[in-house]
Amino acid sequence: MQPLDSEKSLIKISHCSKDIFASFVPKYCPLCGQSLVYRKLEDAPVSIPSPFVNGHRERCSFLLKPTTGTFLSGYDGSSDLHVGITNTKGLVYNYNEAGVHKAEYGWEQCVSIPLVQPDMYGLLKQWDLYLEQFSVAEIWQPHRYDEHLHNCYTYGLTFINCVLSAQKQQQLSKSEFTEKFVIPRTRKASKYITIYKEICKNGFFTVGHPSEGGGTTSTVHLTS
Ligand SMILES: [Zn+2]
Known about the structure:
The structure is a single chain. This protein is of the alpha+beta class. The protein has helices spanning 121-135, 152-166, 174-202; strands spanning 10-15, 18-22, 46-48, 61-66, 80-86, 92-96, 99-103, 111-114, 204-208, 221-222. The chain binds zinc ion (ZN). Pfam families: DUF4796_C (PF16044), DUF4796_N (PF22795).
């Protein structure tokens, strides 16, 4: 296995009635060996952006990563995920059985959901203070932790709802937030992981036409 840069885009081309994924634009079709000339627009290479970002460079975002290992190494599609919230300086606040942590590293390969528009200056100014004050509350003491009912996800979502209520906006239920913001991104990530792993193993990955493109959708377990 030859690891690729986790933030690198992959390439999709069409040839031999198949979608062919690779890490660079190939000169020859890996299936038939013909030289590739992109005459028609629909045959032109398409870039598949990486769904992963360095969480420490994301400000005011909700982050997801596997509890152990990374998405592209060790994650099997159903491993537990861990959740964090970044402040404006890339410090990742996260809650587990040992309480709230402020991580300066360890969140380099994440799925990120930005929570604040860049023009919301008032909120951006208050964000770090909100997050800090929220995190010292008694409910985030280690003994309050419960793997299923009071975990990292509860912490992240409760913070989002505190911000929403301070902005006089409607709160989000766990299922609303998960379906609207989390699932679309984890679904994309899991397709990318499938393609990425095949490319590392074989150099390319093909899917027959017409197709929704080769990823299996994985279940997400949000705990700790
Ligand atoms: Zn071909």
